[in-house]
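Structure (tokenized):
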């Protein structure tokens, strides 16, 4: 009796989950979970083919950052993300294109450095409307302290710019940490500058900003298994739309 009762309970639960009446009536298909839709797929591309398909999917979004407009632009950002050890979304949030140059937000530079094995620490020492001071220590090296003052900004002709007039502390911190990060960890940042630095013509001379030509990207030919996986996802998404309708 106990086994029969258990079987009936389990059958009833299964019927309720699928929308049935438990008596052999017509069943309504339950909406799948996100886990079922993606079937354990990673949110990060594993090779160039997956990166290309992810770029095509994201290109339809209306929420892309300024300067990133096509799947080729996104594909370029994903390649940079792979080199920098970033997730796709972190790269799309933090990498911008200014006049054909790839730039990076100062806070993303700091995050990359802090999470890199070469960095013992990277910390803010002082932040005022007059100056910003950061200190970092690379493994096996002595600590390095860097200061960027409002006088430095005036000499560079920055103080009259909109953000510098409204948020001097923020802008001083951004300049200070980006310069220190490139000075101590050039191999980690690979020549990236901030958008503010590029727009004001600041470079180190021997380390020009990264130039990109997104239109020249020749995407790799997808493998058969990738095409099949993409077809499966598209089919599932179509079913989800039908359920919502």
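Design, position by position:
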């Amino acid at each position: 009796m106990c086994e029969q009762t258990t079987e009936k309970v389990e059958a009833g639960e299964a019927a309720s989950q699928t929308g049935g009446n438990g008596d052999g009536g017509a069943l309504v298909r339950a909406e799948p979970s996100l886990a079922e839709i993606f079937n354990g797929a990673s949110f990060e591309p594993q090779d160039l083919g997956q990166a290309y398909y992810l770029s095509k999917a994201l290109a339809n979004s209306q929420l892309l950052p300024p300067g990133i407009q096509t799947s080729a632009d996104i594909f370029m950002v994903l390649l940079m993300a792979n080199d920098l050890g970033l997730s796709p979304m972190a790269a799309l949030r933090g990498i911008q294109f200014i006049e054909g140059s790839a730039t990076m937000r100062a806070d993303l530079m700091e995050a990359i450095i802090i999470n890199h094995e070469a960095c013992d620490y990277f910390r803010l020492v002082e932040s005022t409307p007059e100056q910003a001071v950061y200190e970092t220590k690379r493994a096996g090296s002595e600590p390095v302290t860097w200061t960027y003052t409002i006088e430095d900004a005036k000499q560079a002709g920055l103080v009259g710019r909109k953000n510098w007039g409204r948020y001097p502390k923020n802008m001083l911190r951004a300049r200070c940490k980006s310069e220190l990060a490139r000075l101590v960890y050039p191999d980690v940042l690979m020549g990236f500058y901030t958008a503010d630095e590029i727009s004001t013509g600041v470079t180190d001379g021997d380390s020009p900003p990264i130039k990109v030509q997104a239109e020249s990207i020749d995407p790799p030919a997808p493998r058969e298994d990738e095409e099949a996986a993409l077809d499966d996802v598209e089919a599932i998404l179509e079913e989800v739309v039908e359920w919502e309708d």
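Reviewer-requested clarification: Residues 44-105+194-223 form one domain. The longest strand covers residues 119-127.
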